[in-house]
């Protein structure tokens, strides 16, 4: 008589789910690489089979060679841009969520502030750069201020939208249990708003990198300064700096995606 414990065999449904998960994971990695290969191929063809001068469009090989020749130089400037981006994005996250919460909590405040937030967002941020220089100078404060201006509105809008989209049945359940407003906010409204808040943060993250680079155009360091200085004489270095900016932006974005998955594991299981 066999007293051993038999392990349940995998059902066809389980195997199918695992296969789909593996295919989705592979597609997530491979499809962006396919797109990258197509872009690089088109870039190489444009510089090889056309009369475009290298001063206007350097070849991918020359840009990669520039990256190999100046890794420390580009890494030093990339660290400056990274610090500015993270500081500005952190301030925007805290301030944007706080202001969005206040707007969602008060209809009067929403009517007072919302039109002016839209108006501020409509102003080209480059047009505000001279004022930021006048107020803050060319140092870190001005660049962080540009980052905040670039990504402030998406965070506020996403926070307000998420807090105002709490299902009525959850709010009624909290009221039926005589839960205080602060407890309802912490346990019901804010957790339900987090997926929407992360949408705003993911929109804001690339804008934060753009703001940091814009703030560096007339500075003494940072990738924006490298692009500005080299674009008039060494286009290859300018393209190499642009490539570093792109990699930095993608890395920060997917770091935020990873943080969202770790912080909100239930979202993937409760949404289609």
Largest sheet: none
CATH fold title: MetI-like fold
In total, how many beta strands?
A: 0
Distance between the termini: 47 Å
What CATH architecture label applies? Orthogonal Bundle
Structural class: mainly alpha
Q: CATH first level: which class?
A: Mainly Alpha
Gross morphology is globular
The CATH superfamily title: MetI-like
How many structural domains in the coordinates?
A: 1
**SSE sequence, one letter per element:** HHHHHHHHHHH
Helix content: over 70%
Radius of gyration: 24 Å
Fraction of residues in β-strands: under 5%
What's the tally of helices? 11
Average pLDDT taken over every residue: 85
Spans of at least 5 consecutive residues with low confidence: none
Characterize the structure shown.
- It is a single chain.
- It contains 11 helices and no strands.
- The protein is mainly α and 272 residues long.
- It has one domain (59-266): MetI-like fold (Orthogonal Bundle).
- Helix 2 crosses helix 10 (235-263), helix 3 packs antiparallel against helix 8 and helix 9 (223-230) runs antiparallel to helix 10.
- It is globular and about 70 Å long.
């Amino acid at each position: 008589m066999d007293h051993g414990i038999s392990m349940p065999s995998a059902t066809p449904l389980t195997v199918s789910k695992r296969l789909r998960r593996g295919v989705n994971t592979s597609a997530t990695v491979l499809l962006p690489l396919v797109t990258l290969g197509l872009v690089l191929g088109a870039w190489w063809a444009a510089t090889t089979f056309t009369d475009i001068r290298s001063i206007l469009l350097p070849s991918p090989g020359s840009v990669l060679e520039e990256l190999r020749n100046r890794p420390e130089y580009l890494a030093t400037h990339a660290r400056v841009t990274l610090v500015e981006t993270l500081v500005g994005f952190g301030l925007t996250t805290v301030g944007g969520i706080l202001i969005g919460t206040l707007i969602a909590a008060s209809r009067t405040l929403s009517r007072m502030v919302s039109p002016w937030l839209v108006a501020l967002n409509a102003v080209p941020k480059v047009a505000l750069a001279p004022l930021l220089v006048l107020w803050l100078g060319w140092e870190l404060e001005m660049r962080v201020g540009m980052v905040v201006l670039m990504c402030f509105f998406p965070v506020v809008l996403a926070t307000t939208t998420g807090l105002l989209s709490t299902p009525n049945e959850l709010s009624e359940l909290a009221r039926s249990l005589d839960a205080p407003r602060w407890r309802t906010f912490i346990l019901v409204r804010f957790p339900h708003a987090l997926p929407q808040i992360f949408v705003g943060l993911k929109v804001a993250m690339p804008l934060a990198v753009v703001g940091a680079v814009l703030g560096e155009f007339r500075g003494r360091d940072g990738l924006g300064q490298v692009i500005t200085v080299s674009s008039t004489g060494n286009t290859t270095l300018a393209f190499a700096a642009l490539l570093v900016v792109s990699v930095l932006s993608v890395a920060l974005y997917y770091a935020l995606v990873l943080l969202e998955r770790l912080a909100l594991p239930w979202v993937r299981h409760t949404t289609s």
